[in-house]
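Annex B. Sample input.
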Amino acid sequence: MASALPFLKVHGLGNDFVLLDGLSRELPLARLLEPRTAIAICDRHLGVGADGVLLLLPPRSAEAQLTMRVLNADGSEAEMCGNGIRCAAKAARDHLPRFAGLERLAFDTGAGLLHCDLRLDAEGRVAAVRVDMGRPRLERAELPMRGEGRFVEGALSAGGRELRATAVSMGNPHLVSFVDEDPRPLAEALGPGLEHHPDFPRRVNVEFARLDADGAGLELWVWERGCGITRACGTGACATAVAAVVTGRAREGVPLEVRLPGGPLRIEVAPGLERVLMEGPAVEVFRGELELP
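Annex B, continued. Sample output.
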């Protein structure tokens, strides 16, 4: 298997990835970026199986130490992935000697420069990561979304139902709707159509959230662009917390527990929407080698 590529299988709250190290070796990047390659790798019956592929690559800017690229299970490339960057930070710190002893890493991503603070376990390995996700964006042009200005509690039709939703970019586009009923059936039924809504030329991630009575947390189901329902979505959790703040459902500067099917994330929206902080676990599952299709 001389042409086989070593990989790590990693996950953040069950949102799982095949991670390839392009810092220690040269990756066949052109082949990896072909949609059919990620589709084959992520196939849960015929491939390794994953929600996406993470590529660790050399930094693109002087401020960063490495670059993360994210390929969705349908072969498209995402600008960012909150669970993915925590997994990438764990893999880099735990396995690459150049990052040994560091407790902070700076990544170039499609959403810009992002910093990760590493939480270590008793054995000195990364157990959790706190990510400064940067400033959220609410202007339609920044998502992108057709129209002008912000889309906050705006009206949309999907599946014969009228919804109120808020559009937020965390470097990738999200559409968040707060509901009083079980959010899972709504995400499953309405997510596919909303992902391809004509107002979003690059498609959109779709969130359905139900707030706790005390406002200290919420339940969240996400239909991810290019993946469908996943067990967790870090950028979706951040976008939902931002939407909760801008619609008066949550307070800025106060941590919010966002409970996803795979477990909780701790999200804090800074005063003035200056930045969003996300903290959650990262887990290594196994190592292996794969042959590209």
